[in-house]
Amino acid sequence: MKTKQLIEALKLMPQDAEVRYLWDGSSRSDAEMAWLARGGFVVIAERGMVCYGDEDRPTDAALSKDDQYWQAQYDYKKRE
User: What is the pLDDT of residues 51-63, one digit of tens each?
Assistant: First the structure.
């Protein structure tokens, strides 16, 4: 799915609905942030999730060689 497709799908939904993501068969976690990853794709996560791979991290996050267990504490709006 591309970002454009996601935006179009979200336009059809109630704008005040909570966003969650499916993990291990259930919608267990709230989507609290989103960022464009170094790998060129969008990541949706909740705060405090550990991110191991450099390709999954935002471009301004520490690399895994410097911070093996980078935790998502990202606010994309502040970095635009």
Answer: 999 999 998 899 9
**Concatenated DSSP letters of 24-64:** TTEEEEE--EEEEBTTSSEEEE-TT-EE--GGGSBTTSPPT
Q: What is the rounded CA–CA span in Å between residue 50 and residue 38? A: 16
pTM over 0.70: yes
- Token pair for 23: 């993990």
Amino acid type, 34: A
- pLDDT, one tens digit per residue, over 19-72 is 998 888 899 888 888 889 999 999 998 888 999 999 999 988 999 999 999 998
| Rama region for 72: left / alpha / beta (φ>0; ψ in -120 to 50; rest) | beta
